[in-house]
Structure formats: structure tokens, C-alpha cells
User: What shape does this take?
Amino acid sequence: EGRRDRRRRVSIGKKQLRKSQNNCIAIIGDGAITGGMAYEAMNNAHYLNARMITILNDNGQVSLPTGTPSAGGVIPSGALSAYTSRLLSSKPFADFRNVAKGVSNLLPQELQAINAKIDEYARGIVTGGTLFEELGWYYVGPVDGHDLENLVPILENLRDSPNDNKPILLHLKTEKGMGYPPAMKASDKMHGVAKFDVGTGKQMKPSTPKPPSFTSIFANELVKVAERDRNVVGITAAMPGGTGMDIFGRRFPKRTYDVGIAEQHAVTFAAGLAVEGLKPFCCIYSTFLQRGYDQLVHDVVIQKLPVRFILDRAGLVGNDGPTHHGSFDLAYLGCLPDIVIMAPAEEIDLKNMIATAHAIDDKPSAVRYPRGNSYGADVLKSLFNLDDATVERGLEAGGGRVLEIGEGRVVKELKGPPSAPRVALLSIGTRLAAALEAANDLASSAAVTVADARFMKPLDEDLVRDLAENHDVLVTLEENSSNGFSAAVLHFLALDGLLDDGNLQVRPMVLPDAFIEAATQQQQYDQAGLNAHHIVATVNTLLQKRQPPTLRAAQTSPEDAIANGVQIALHNETNALEPRSLAATL
Assistant: This one.
């Protein structure tokens, strides 16, 4: 949708700068054309007399997957999809138009102009006119997008058309995956793929069983919550499969709303439902909620409406790349007042936070969780230090419990050797596992405490204060850009005076100030410097800085030291380190 609007701006830019007008072509799908920016661009293009060709690729795949049970049935979301379907199925329209054009080409020039008026009237009789023509566009179609012998001459005619001040819309009918049977049978599964067998279409995923995904854990937990509360509803913006709303929709189709690729509408729609006393869970990828930010601020947060935002794909997402990384939500949500922000580190806490969000009924809340699989019972016990009873109860269907708002937890404490420096690792969300691995590596040289903040807002100030007062080093960890959780912690430390004496060394570890390209998630964590060995290296660097410098007499004579103004640190009467010049000491 946004790319299409930029094509229009390129066309206008050339005109403004008096550059030669080539053909600016925008290609948009039937899902994206439902978004607000597409309508804004279509409305504005005719007004500006822009030379622009837009190709509407209409394949009926408005959502992924299209056909998920919802309040609108199993048809594609939105009236526009139904409208274009009527255009595509209007055989008299297509036949009459082809005949009219054939006759028109045989007439003298002056009669062709008259026939054009007849043709326009005839199209109005058959279809009631087209929305696109009412917006000032010249509509061509529908055309079979797979018939290249017919399509290429049409594109050439549009390219060579003398018209330079009226936008054109070419409406193509296509089938997703056309020509490749595995993709035609499962278009949503082949939308983004791992390595796969070309002959069968089978994706080559690891054969060993994996724990369920965070997405499915969320969806199944929400189903259990909704079974107990009829006011719970789910909202998705054309991503029922990606957000788990397909699971929820199969169980509660009448309480599932797919608004299409229209995140702004999804947010305000959720606000309207909340006003009436329903409990909306607005399920949107972290990166796509950015589209609805204005509505989030004005229609939800300022109104203090209890909309529950479920942000899937928070953090780095692997091969979907920089457009899909959920890198900024802690920053863009954290600056807003009166919103609860939660980030689970593992699947049991994800279920707990769904229960907590359901219980919050006086303000908005957000739960962010990553792409990928959960950890499973064995890892929860061995790495996350959870006991058998907690794991068994937590993994039960509907086992989520309501958390105390703004309360973090200490996950592990390792004593280390005697008189060892004290290190605290404070994580929020996905990097807790890496922090725990790093703690095990550091235990031979330091006493290490690993804490899970759980909440960014409200921040557990007592936990942060305790870590600051009882440790020499504090490292914060998050899978988010700067100005997120770490910034909130540093802000609190500064205001609370916990940095004033200079004894606490603090380092934030966040995503780098760059867009990370497509790769595996583990490769991306390495690029970002957020894996366990990066945490260990950061801590070791800080610990080395705490060691007092020593003067090696055999290498440096007092005369040379005085001449060079060398500074050394000597113990005073109270054993505090105090820098003095060597000359003054001598």
C-alpha cells in the first residue's frame, strides 16, 4: 500500500522538476488496496493529473490464509474484494467491451469518439460503473493475468498511450501459485518457505519434534479464556494464520474479526468494541502496529480503553527480514502513559500474561512475544530453573495465572568464588535464555544474579533498586532498539540517585542502530551482539575495568614515570583507591 503511494509521488516529482515523463507503474494486490493510503493516493492522483499506471493483482488472497472462519464467514475480508469479484465474474461486461472495442476500431475517427461515449454508458448499464472510474481513473479489465499473449500487448498499448494526465488502472485476475500445484493447493504455506523439494513442495524442516510455537500457545490460551468469558473477541488485520486467529476463529467464528490489511481500522475498531464493554484482543505483528500508531494514541491510550494488543513477531524474525522485524515496539509504546507493557521470556509466562491482559479492564495493555518455537518442559526446568509443579501446571491448557502488575522476578542466583564481583543481568522478554546461559559461563569468576523484568511499564522499581544497590555491574538486555526497556531502567536509576556514587557499572544491550538483513534468527542475534557469548564478553570487559592499574618497576623507572607524567593508583589509609601523580608520591 505504501509502495503504491510512493509510485504516485515519483510521478508527481518528475512533473514538478520538469523531467521527462516515463511510465510510473504501481503494482498492488487486492489485499493491500483495502488500506487507507491506497484510497488516499487514488483520490489524489486524478486531482493532480498524474501520469500513472496501476496494476491491480486480484488473486482473492486478501488474508493469510483467506477463508479463515470469522464473523464475516469464510469469504475474503471486505466489500472491495466482493466488488472486484463481481467485476471478474461479469462475462457480459467482458464480452460486450471486447466487441465494442473491435467495432470501434473499424469506425472513422469522429465516430470512435461517439462510440467511446456509448461504451462508457454500456459499462455503466452492465456493472453500475466502477469505483475506480468514479475516482477519475481509466479502468481497463478484467484481464487474465496468466495470458501473456494478451497481457503484453495491453501493457504495450498503455505504455504508448498519448494520454499523460489521467491515471490508469489495469485489473488482472491471477491465481496464487499458478503453474506449481503444491503452491496452488496451499498458497498460505508457500507464501514464505524454508528450503523445499521442488517436485513435491514439501518443506525441509527438522524431523525431530519441536515444542509448539509461541503463536499457537497464545491462540490456544485465548480460546480457553474465551470459553470462560463470552465478551472476549479477537481481531486480526489479514494475518489470521500468522497471529493464531485462525485457531481462535475455528472455535469462535462469530467472535473473530478479520479487517483486512487495515491496521489503523483494526485499532479503532477494537476501541469501539471496548467502549461497549467487550474485551478485544487486537492481534497484530509488532512491525505492522506501527501503521496504526496514531489511532493507538488518540483512540485507545488517551481514552484509557482496555484494548489488549497482542504483538506477534516481536524482535528479530529471521528470513522475513527488516520489514518484519519487531524492533521498535518497546520504544514506541514505552513513551505512552497509562499502558501496561509485558514481555514473556518463555511459554508459561506468555500464558500468564494473556490471563493478566484479560484481567486489566481500566487501561490498554500490550503483550509482545517472539516468532518461533517455545522451549518445552525440559528446558523450562533445566535452564529457567522452574520446578516440576510450576511447569506441569503452567503447561496445562488454560493454565495461565494473573500476575501482579509491574512485578518482575529473580530467576537464578549463582554465588561464584569468594570475594567475587557481583553481576546482575536484567532481561525483558526473549533474551532471558541467553542471559541464563551467560550466567553459567560467568559463575567461575563472578557472583551472578539473573532477573526477568516481565513488565516494562510499570517498571518493577524495587527489583531494579535492589539489583543496583547489591551489585557492582548491571547489564540490561532486550530484543528491541534503543530508547526502549534499557532507557527506562537508566532513567529510573538516574532519578533515584543510584548512579550518583559512581560504584555501579551499567551497560545496556539492545539491537544495533541498523536494519538487520534476512538470515536465520541465530545469525541475526550474532549480528546484533545479543547471544550468550556477547553477554559474557560485555561483563568481562566491565570486570577488567574494575581492576586497579599497576606500575611495573622493572619496566618503568621513577625518573621516566615523572618525566612522562604517569598516573598510578595507590591505597590510602582507608584502602580506597585514589589516583595520585608519581612525582607527588615520591
Q: What stands out?
A: Residues 213 and 532 are 22 Å apart (CA to CA). The two ends are 74 Å apart (CA to CA).
